[in-house]
């Protein structure tokens, strides 16, 4: 019996370590706009009438529907580059195949998705090569077997909902660089309201203070969420003590619930770190806009 308990504890702890390691890696990853040539775009994944996976962007600066897939050139004069691009295109294709199954299983559409990827250029401008696809968290179903594990799971869900509300607050004003009009000396911006309506410079400046206040509130939510997410780890030991008293089959179900909480905790922390980076970037752009 002690061996089984040790195995269950080790199993859950291994998952905990893997997702905390994931969070550390994510925090070092540049997730702001245009970092490493990549962009983060929110939107909806759906399967079109031809059975092809598409992504309808809800970002004001990318108002279009993209086809997902590899976009890198595999036929250049540089064989090493071709080999590397072929590998990356293959990786993108695997990601698309995996998400196609997920979307089909969900009924053909998943909303509130975030994709980190590379935008196509020229005749590939309607294509998006995904590096990472983040689907929304679903409301958890608790087992009732280990109250501490259930509380852990529900607490993570509550923080996730707060994070999504904070994301919406940040849409009061969207400020993005105008690449066509900007020069090395002068940076120009394109601005949108919360409904992606194009704003004039005066209209954008008029919304700047409101946007800064909303982002400051969102930033406080993010800071609190990250602190709470770390503090929730204390529930792990309490949950394991409860699980240790259960019957073998009950233990399996309860430890699965605990493992799910740990997985979601990693996703929650990652989501908040990306939002924090986005808020910082938006504040910097608004400051530049006001200084023009």
Word description of this protein:
The chain has two domains: 182 residues, no CATH class; 100 residues. It is built from six helices and eight strands. The protein has a five-stranded mixed barrel. A hairpin with a 5-residue loop joins strand 1 and strand 2. About 8% of the residues have low confidence.
Secondary structure layout plus pairing:
Layout lengths: L1 H27 L10 E9 L5 E5 L7 E4 L10 H27 L3 E11 L7 E8 L12 H23 L3 E5 L11 E5 L4 E2 L1 H31 L3 H10 L3 H43 L2
Parallel strand pairs: 3-5
Antiparallel strand pairs: 1-2, 1-4, 2-3, 4-5, 6-7, 7-8
Helix pairs in contact: 1-6, 3-4, 3-5, 3-6, 4-6, 5-6
SS field, number of helical segments: 6
Instruction: Indicate the proportion of strand residues.
Output: 15-25%
Shape verdict: globular
Give me the strand/helix succession: HEEEHEEHEEEHHH
